[in-house]
Write a structure and sequence with these properties.
five-stranded parallel sheet; binds 6-O-phosphono-alpha-D-glucopyranose; alpha/beta; 374 residues
């Protein structure tokens, strides 16, 4: 039923707009709201026999490529916070190039939409040889990664056809937030935090429905950016990954140079690029990094940067610091799920830029949905 475009012109457009439904399917049967005496909890059937081993591991290492890597990166802080276990990140090809250390005491989590990406699959073979517990997070039941890992979670986002991954990305983040909750267990010290995340998960499809209303606004923004050579995207904390993923979307489909930049590194190079011509997208939604992002915005203004700022609803005045930035206001959710909401306007921007620039949305030149050769 998902293989046609329905009322949409392109698969990517359809997949962006069906995220409220795909997220609902991802969470179905896995969140327990709890009665009066039962705490809210998460059930991930594919992991239940391995949770004890995961909790005892010396390190959790995420391994993936492209968008799947970015989804894992966005989930790193909540996994560190709830599990207390060191979490490291590996791009599959780089791990293989270095033959980096993987130990028996590691839990290696392989994230892949298709479950067939050659680099990720080879990294899985390598981790198995080294004795790590291997967990798969894929969208494809019966895929090589699903079959060859010890245990795992299907993201159940439904078939994704557009080469640029959209709905799989948001479902991956939700699965990894649930993974963090499951590994974190039921420690009393985390109870309020856990409940806030679970409440926010229940409400997330509604918030994504709300942010999708920015479609026209992002089309207008795309019209302004249509002839640009380059777009920088600044983010930090939970939204460093959003900056990387937003830039990847623009690069992949709109064929425009775009770079995701860790805002904390701004002074160590990127600031040299800032002038009155280069468009810069700054993600500054409310979280523990907000005041640092305000100071980044001030510094970019001081260099006459051409800014588009993404902020939480009602925060426009707090981010238009002495300049005439364009503002994109998004609904606020709990910090670790904010990347799910924040990526949507960037997906819409990349989509409209591609259509306006006359490029192939669903089959960008030179790219494949699943890269099965190394
Ligand atoms: C290709 C696709 C990307 C995808 C990456 C990883 O490069 O074009 O959209 O993110 O592979 O794919 P996977 O199936 O492993 O998530």
């Amino acid at each position: 039923e998902q293989i046609n475009k329905g009322n949409y012109e392109h698969y990517m457009q359809k997949e962006i707009h069906e995220q409220p439904e795909s997220l609902t399917t991802t969470m179905r049967g896995r969140l327990i709201r709890g009665g009066s005496c039962k705490a809210k909890t998460v059930l991930l059937g594919g992991l239940k026999d391995h949770l004890k081993t995961i909790r005892r591991s010396r390190r959790i290492v995420f391994i993936g490529c492209g968008t799947s890597y970015n989804a894992a990166l966005s989930s790193r802080p909540i996994l560190e916070e709830l599990s207390g276990i060191p979490v490291t990140m590996e791009i599959a090809s780089d791990l293989l190039d270095r033959q980096g250390p993987i130990y028996r005491e590691d839990t290696a989590v392989f994230v892949s939409q298709s479950g067939e990406t050659a680099d990720t699959l080879h990294a899985l073979e390598y981790a198995l040889e080294n004795g790590a517990l291997c967990v798969g997070i894929t969208n494809t039941v019966g895929s090589a990664i699903a079959r060859n890992t010890h245990c795992g979670v299907h993201i159940n986002a439904g078939c994704e056809i557009g080469v640029a991954s959209t709905k799989a990305y948001t479902s991956q983040i939700v699965v990894m937030a649930m993974l963090a909750l499951a590994i974190g267990g039921d420690a009393i010290s985390n109870e309020a935090r856990r409940e806030a995340i679970i409440d926010s998960l229940f409400d997330l499809p509604n918030k994504v429905r709300e942010v999708l209303k920015l479609d026209e606004e992002m089309k207008e923004l795309a019209k302004l950016l249509i002839a640009e050579q380059s777009l920088l995207v600044f983010g930090r904390g939970y939204n460093y990954a959003t900056a990387l993923e937003g830039a990847l979307k623009v690069k992949e489909v709109a064929l425009m140079h775009s770079e995701g930049i860790l805002a904390g590194e701004m002074k160590h190079g990127p600031l040299a690029l800032v002038d009155e011509n280069l468009p810069i997208f700054v993600i500054a939604t409310r979280d523990a990094c907000f005041s640092k992002q305000q100071s980044v915005i001030q510094q970019l203004h001081a260099r006459k940067g051409r800014l588009v700022v993404m902020c939480s609803k009602g925060d426009a005045a707090s981010v238009c610091l002495g300049g005439s930035s364009r503002v994109v206001e998004v609904p606020q959710v709990v910090d670790c799920l904010q990347p799910v909401v924040n990526i949507v306007p960037l997906q819409l921007l990349a989509y409209h830029l591609t259509v306006l620039r006359g490029f192939n949305v669903d089959q960008p030149r030179n790219l494949a949905k699943s890269v099965t050769t190394q």
